[in-house]
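Incident review: delayed structure delivery

Summary: a single-chain prediction request sat in the queue longer than the usual turnaround. Root cause was a stuck worker, restarted by the on-call engineer. No data loss occurred. The affected request and its eventual output are reproduced below so the record is complete for anyone auditing the incident later.

Affected input:
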Amino acid sequence: QVQLVESGGGLVQAGGSLKLSCAASGRAVSMYVMAWFRQRPGKEHEFVAAITSGGVIGNYGDSVKGRFTISRDNVKNTVYLQVNSLKPEDAAVYYCAADRNLRFRGKYSWYYDYWGQGTQVTVSS
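Output delivered after worker restart:
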């Protein structure tokens, strides 16, 4: 199975940017649909973005379209999430996830088989 470790979170001001990383080991990220979810206190996991093995065009949640970009580097075996124009409501723990089905299935967390431990993004206003 694949192991996933997120990094790159931190405290930023509203309007700022971060680049989150999801480093995979054990298996190649090219064998999975890779996704980012986020979770705010007291809420369920929210779909953020996903990318298929081709990696050219991603899928995005409505709240982040135009601001966030998902990408993958198969050589480094890493998936990224570039987050721009951050808003206070973007503050959350961001999780990386992998789906063994190579076709993108959707935004529900139970589609995804493997998860990282999360990285905290905090946005000050």
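Verification: The mean pLDDT is 94.
Action items: add queue-age alerting; document worker restart procedure.
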